[in-house]
Amino acid sequence: MTFELICFYVFASVAALAALTVISVKNPVVAALSLVLTFFSMACVWLLAQAEFLAVALVLVYVGAVMVLFLFVVMMLDVDFSVVREGFVRFLPVGVLVAAVMLTEMLMMIGVRSLKTPVTEDPAVLAGMSNMEWLGQTLFRDFLLPFEIAALILTVGLIAAVTLTLRKRTGTKVQRPGLQVMVKREDRLRVIKMDAVGKGEVGP
Hints:
single chain, 204 residues, mainly alpha, 74% helix
């Protein structure tokens, strides 16, 4: 059994256990940290498959988006931050464990890269370019039309989602650009002529 195969089994096992932890624990902080570990382990699996772009995208997009979303939800909810600060020590072991596992996986990936032998079946290697360069050439040259169609479908889905969730609620203030453009000076400003009143005098 080669070192690369051992790393694959380790990464896959960690990803499976972390994914089970995400759906089994009740604490949202532990679930979020386990989800980050799941994404990171799968990124290591992608690196073993020489898919560097997918691995980097998985880490930057999903790991970053999950943590930002989690922070956004915590900031938007009515959370007692004193209680959150008190629970930092309680969640510290879980964070340290996740960080230690991620560090171990990174060190294992460094070892895999140092012992990696070129794979002739890889189309990027056959083309004489890196994985990211081959992916960009293939995606934006050979499959440009399907890529644009997929982007259009996603845009339509985004517009449909916004349209379906846009509801008129009572008591909310909204802007109406059409009425703002049609407004006149007489509708917003009224000039009133008043007699001058001196100090200590009472007007009519």
